[in-house]
Amino acid sequence: MLFLTQSVEQKLMMYWKGHLDNHRLWVPNDFAVKCFKVVMFSVQAQYGYVVVQMLMSHLDEHSKSQPRMKASIVDVLAETVLIAAGGSIGPSVLEVFNTLLRHIRVSVDNKTTDKDRLSDEKKFQESCINTIGEFANNLPDYQKIEIMMFVMGKVNTSTDDKPSDSKDVMLQTMLLKTLLTVATKYKTVLMSNAFTLPFLEPLMRMSISSDPGIRLLVQEILHTLLDRHNNLPKLKTVKIMADISQLSLTVEKPPRQDVMFMKKNGSQFYWHLYENMQQLSNKLENFAALYITLALLGLEMGADEILVELFRLSLGMQEMACNSTSLPSKHRCCIHAVVAAYYNLMSQLTAIPALCQHITQVIEIREKEARHLLPDEAFTENKQWTSPEGPKPEWLFDQDIISEALHSSGLDTTKLGTPFMNKLSIQLGSDGVDGVTGSVSDINSISIDLESAASTPGMTRRRFSTEITVETLKKVLADSSQDREEEKAKQAEILHMFREGPFEEIVAKSEARATRFHSKVDEILKMLDEQAESVENQDIDRDITNIDEPIPIYEIKYPDLFVY
User: Fold this and answer.
1) What string of H, E and C letters represents the secondary structure of 91-116?
2) 3-state secondary structure string across 264-296
3) How far apart are the first and last CA of the chain?
4) What pLDDT was estimated at residue 467?
5) Per-residue model confidence (pLDDT) at position 292
């Protein structure tokens, strides 16, 4: 086998170096593609990986060549891997992707001001992405998931507030386009399989990137993976339809595994959608993509509890658009329009009469008095809402009416009244970090007694303020039952918060508590340092004063613990 492998390598090396390279037959690559197809169909299937590996090595050798030549080699590689994927290429699966991703990175890093060279580089990058997509199309679904995780691992998911370098943005864009290409080849069956935690978390972090193009790509990836019933093409336009049956949407009851997945990880989607809505760099296509994500979540995983959470999220978005002072008026109009289109869709899908009546009534009022809060006006480039006044109450969807309508159909709406908060909503202030107003002890009023043993010379043991008697012990025993009841009630309250409370609120409280704790610890340590420094200075002064007057050993007072 080794002899046959070496024989194939030697003949191929002679062929493309002695013929294709020397005679510059890679561009155009029609001849090269036909030749390699003949080679792939001529060798046995188990040796197909040899041709793939040699082409990748040849691409590495030409890493500094003209991008048109590299693109031609990649196109030949694409045709080759399509044939090899039908056989056994074994461990070279990720090797192909790793090589192509590396060349994409190198291409992005190339500095050039030549427009023709820049255009050729983009074509080369697109060739690499298309090759990855075509190769992934011939792999089983479990390998497609691994490839998506592999590509996601190459993306820098840092979302700090520092301005991103143009090269970093370009590289992230190329990698996410690659991920989108692979995702289009994957057919989602269960959401828990498509959105594994190592894949979901970095993808969600990228969804709040500072670049609107990257955020749009992430939403498109979510659309591709969420859409199991080919509803995506029917939702491309944000609009309000009197009868959504014209869209011919396919809606099925979500499997139990998906419901459990959303109960566990749904907060990731909700919080990041909420954060996306208030990005100042959003464009119209960003708002349209967020609407599609909301709609697909409702269509694909619209179980009762999930539906209530989505309505709660939409109400939170409406409140954000009403109260936010940092958002431009155009953005606030788009948010109101997205919420209106989403409620129009979901009310007709749920077919709850009271809900449909309320949604229709608000939309009709907007058509007469506030068309800028509907998609037709809000998603028009040249339209701008310049009125300084906020929306009138009759223009908004009423939480109480929605809650009552959902409750009448048997849904549990207890969570609907909980305000939707982002993780920055809980501020450190004079209130307690648990959300209950109360006094916070002043750290500077804490006195620290470092030495309290009576055996220390010159010091006396502190006395208890209350004398311990039989009556005192009886009182402690009597009060302990009441303390236990209070402790149980407190534990039950905490348990209820973690079971029923919104995930983002729990995270915000935990982060605030940790921040406050660390600030107190820093103050305590600072006080200890100052006190220790003061004691040390006093000792030094005393030593300097008494340096010439040694104390007789019989006058030294030793602690009781050291006296035998």
Assistant:
1) CHHHHHHHHHHHHHHHHHHCCCCCHH
2) HHHHHHHHHHHHHHCCCCCCHHHHHHHHHHHHH
3) 86
4) 62
5) 96
Amino acid at 193: N
Provide, rounded to the nearest whole percent, the portion of the chain with pLDDT above 70.
74
Burial of 501 (0-12, 13-18, 19+ CB in 10 A): middle
Compute CA distances 181 → 56, 211, 217, 378, 558, whole Å: 21, 20, 11, 31, 80
Measured distance CA(345)–CA(237) in Å, rounded: 12
- Residue range 509-560, pLDDT digits in tens: 777 777 777 778 778 877 877 776 666 566 555 555 555 556 666 666 656 5
The answer to whether 247 touches 241, Cβ cutoff 8 Å, is yes
Please state, in angstroms and rounded to a whole number, the distance separating the CA atoms of residues 356 and 375: 18
Task: Find the DSSP H helices in 248-385.
Answer: 256-277, 284-300, 304-323, 329-350, 353-369, 375-378
Identify which of 511, 241, 463 has the alpha carbon closest to the alpha carbon of residue 349.
241
Q: In one letter, which amino acid is 19? A: H
pLDDT category of residue 364 using cuts at 50, 70 and 90? very high
The Cα-based distances of 63 to 17, 49, 58, 539 in angstroms read 15, 21, 9, 71
The length of the chain, given as a count of residues: 564
Tokens coding 346: 């979901």
CB atoms within 10 A of CB 373: 26
Q: Could you read off the pLDDT of 449-461 as tens digits, one per residue?
A: 444 444 444 444 5
> Are the CB atoms for 247 and 398 separated by under 8 Å?
no
| Dihedral of alpha carbons 210, 214, 215, 218, sign | negative
Handedness of CA 208, 319, 498, 485 (dihedral sign): positive
How many alpha carbons fall within 13 Å on the CB side of residue 505?
A: 14
SS3 state at 22:
coil
Cα diameter, the chain: 107
Separation of alpha carbons 406 and 314, rounded Å: 14
Q: Give the tokens for residue 272.
A: 């990041």
Look up residue 415 and give its DSSP letter: G
Phi, psi angle pair for 530, to nearest 5°: -65, -40
How far apart CA 481 and CA 487 sit, in angstroms, is: 10
d(CA 441, CA 444): 9
The whole-angstrom separation of Cα 428 and Cα 512 is 7
Euclidean distance between CA atoms 317 and 311, whole angstroms:
10
Q: Which amino acid is at 426?
A: I
Q: Tokens for 564? A: 């035998």
Distances 73 to 28, 42, 77, 99, 124 between C-alpha atoms, Å: 10, 20, 6, 13, 10
